[in-house]
Design a protein that fits this description.
18 helices; 5-stranded mixed beta barrel; 8-stranded mixed beta sheet; 26 strands
Length: 616
């Protein structure tokens, strides 16, 4: 018999009754029924119930065993009584009568319990991650991650992509985040960098004549943490193709991503049609370039209804250049209570408030106020038909702008009795993000967002440049390596109108994929950087390897990268990315388990020619 096990803790069933077996695993829990011990023995594959009574030669030894001890059991497989069968597990029809025991590893007092669903502080979970990972949910999440990666690889191989590994130690390259720098011992005073992404290398692979590349690539960025982003490192499906258009990239990656969500989405609906929405329209309709399309709400511009109106705040605002008023429709949100709640939400977001109008059946109170009569008299007039009933608009905004403008707004937004609309104004960039969050809250609270669906959309036509409002300086707003739509000719005009062949894939409010058709012509690249104030010498210094390569017959090429961690987070129905990463950092970018970052020794610093300056 094997030294540790003849089967796993998921293998045994009724056909094994009478067999002598050897199992190894962790004690999930112990139940003492007065002279009879029941132990749930757990390994990576499943659970088996072990039985031991006073007749067993190892009874006294098993009495000392506690939760999470690692043990080996020899015993005989027995059928459970019919009334004690556990249909929830594969081994639920049998149990193993223990005849021999070996303690493989005893456990100290546990800082967190593996059995059960207790909540523990994140600090405890990360410090003792090896225990946290024993828990059923965490095991399932990590198995899911492994299976997703395996499926992605197979899908890419099936499309004739070749997998290559690009360098981990490279040159520093500004790609939108801070680099992790690595000091060089052999070249004192100089530094390597960990790659933020394999961006330049994968483009160089296309110049090298490889037609389709991919890898499951580790990427390193010194970023501030968020619930959906790791602060240090992450993994992405990185891919690049030669001789392709933007649509070719979409047609290639869509069946890969869509197939993954169909395979591992647990039966949730996966959109078959992936809409293409311009960056400009996404900002207008959803207040975000990663909209959650499970929510049907679309925002609209309603400036014309407030220009010159009795609502002075919006009317005066619209006299300023570049301002507008946007409405967030809220079907079924037509109650003062809900409107007040959303107004409070806006105040928490740092705004003075959020204007609103809601529509309701005409009430006796409003008729009495309008006609200057008593409520009872108004009720009688409504009942007799002397005063026409129907719908009325309510809320401070409705009173200020009057019934004609209010009705025009209602018709534009397609709303009716029981519905509401919320309004924000100013220069769009100052309120778009808050409007987008308000749209999400409204969709969730009113039950409009379809929780059982994965909704995808390509966001396209990103602007390449933006202007600093204070300095007037033109700089890159998005990926500087994207090919401008219209090529060199587009760069001769207004830079703020230049769009790039850049695209993101949004799913349920998260960015899953980002990519572009690359700018592969040196003359267009130099011109693009020149507009943003970067001279030819600086471009050659920062991106010399790639620029030089482009002078030797670079093919048109493009690709994208999909965030593995974020994909698994959505599939696992988690809201925090740390739930699907084996050994994540905490919110302060610290590894509590391995005590990183740590202080270097004086010998290490001396060897590298470095000195740490104490922080005040």
């Amino acid at each position: 018999m094997h030294a540790y096990r003849s089967q796993t803790c998921a293998d045994l069933n009724i056909s094994n009754v009478g067999d002598t077996v050897r199992l190894a695993g962790w004690v999930h829990r112990v139940r003492d029924h007065g002279g009879v011990l029941f132990i749930d023995l757990r390994d990576h594959y499943g659970m088996t119930q072990v039985l031991c009574d006073a007749d067993s030669p190892v009874f006294k030894d098993l009495e000392k065993v506690r939760a999470e001890w690692c043990i080996r059991i020899d015993g005989t497989v027995k059928a459970r009584d019919e009334s004690l069968i556990n249909s929830k597990i594969p081994t639920g029809e049998i149990e193993v009568y223990a005849r021999d025991l070996e303690i493989l590893g005893s456990a100290a007092e546990l800082p967190l319990m593996v059995f059960g669903d207790q909540e523990y502080p994140e600090e405890t979970r990360l410090r003792y991650r090896y225990l946290d990972l024993r828990r059923e949910k965490m095991q399932a999440n990590m198995i899911l991650r492994s299976d997703v990666v395996a499926s992605i690889r197979q899908r890419m191989w099936d499309q004739q992509f070749k997998e290559f590994q690009t360098p981990i130690i490279t040159a520093s390259s500004p790609e939108g985040a801070r680099d992790f720098l690595v000091p060089s011992r052999q070249h004192p005073g100089k530094f390597y960098a960990l790659p933020q992404a394999p961006q330049q290398f994968k483009q160089l692979l296309m110049v090298s004549g490889f037609d389709k590349y991919f890898q499951i690539a580790p990427c390193f960025r010194d970023e501030d943490p968020r619930a959906d982003r790791s602060p240090t490192d992450f993994y992405q499906l990185d891919m690049e193709m030669s001789f392709v258009t933007q649509q070719d990239v979409f047609d290639t990656i869509q069946p890969v991503i869509g197939g993954i969500f169909e395979e591992f989405g647990g039966g949730r609906k996966v959109d078959e049609t992936w809409e293409q929405i311009s960056y400009k329209d996404a900002a207008l309709w959803y207040g975000s370039d990663k909209p959650d399309l499970r929510n049907p709400i679309k925002m609209q511009v309603v400036s014309e209804h407030f220009a010159g109106s009795g609502f002075a705040i919006f009317a005066k605002l619209l006299e300023q250049e570049g301002t507008e008023i946007r409405a967030i429709p809220a079907p079924t949100g037509g109650s003062r209570k809900f409107c007040d709640r959303m107004n409070a939400f806006a105040q928490k977001e740092g705004l003075p408030g959020m204007g609103y109008i809601f529509w309701r059946e005409k009430t006796a109170d409003s008729v009495a106020q309008e006609l200057g009569i008593k409520v009872k008299e108004a009720q009688a007039k409504l009942k007799s038909g002397e005063v026409e009933g129907g719908m009325e608009a309510a809320g401070p905004l409705a009173k200020n702008i009057g019934p004609e403008r209010t009705e025009a707004i209602r018709q534009q937004l397609g709303l009716g009795v029981g519905d509401a609309a919320f309004f924000l104004g100013g220069k769009p960039k100052t309120f778009e993000a808050v409007a987008g969050r308000a749209r999400n809250v409204i969709g969730d609270e009113l039950g409009l967002t379809d929780q059982d669906r994965f909704a995808f959309a390509w966001i396209v036509d990103f602007p390449i440049y933006e202007k600093d409002e204070e300095t007037g300086k033109i700089d890159f707003e998005h990926n500087p390596f994207s090919m401008p739509q219209g090529g060199m000719e587009a760069l001769e005009g207004d830079p703020l109108k230049v769009l790039g062949y850049q695209y993101d894939l949004a799913c349920n409010g998260y960015e899953l994929v980002s990519g572009a058709i690359r700018n592969h012509k040196p003359e267009i690249m130099f011109k693009a950087f020149e507009i943003a104030g970067y001279g030819k010498e600086e471009v050659e210094k920062r991106f010399g390897g790639m620029v030089n390569a482009f002078q030797y017959g670079a093919p048109p090429h493009g690709g994208c990268a999909a965030g593995i961690d974020r994909i698994v987070m959505l599939l696992a129905n988690e809201t925090n990315i740390r739930e699907v990463i084996l050994f994540p950092m905490n919110q302060r970018a610290e590894d509590l388990m391995m005590n990183a970052p740590s202080d270097p020794s004086s010998d290490q610093l001396m060897e590298l020619g470095l000195r740490v300056i104490p922080q005040e």
